[in-house]
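User: Quick sanity check before I run a bigger batch. Here is a single chain. Can you write out its predicted 3D structure?
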Amino acid sequence: MNIAVVVSDVSIKDQVATSITYTHIYNNPIIQTIHHAINVTFTEVELFTITCGINQATQIANIGGVAGVVGG
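Assistant: Done. Predicted structure follows.
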């Protein structure tokens, strides 16, 4: 079993939120995901980013755990 490391960061500028997530699993390329949203709060975007990162990591075969790091 492998552990996925999910690193996320969120920023909002001019009412456009940008979230970026990097997912790393031992011996695999890093997966980068970028989302854009408008008219949302910082908390909503941050929770969305965390949820997407965890969902993406758990869809990969042979994952036994997920460790998350959120910037802000």
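The domain at 2-70 is CATH 3.10.20 (Ubiquitin-like (UB roll)).

User: Great, the batch can go ahead then.
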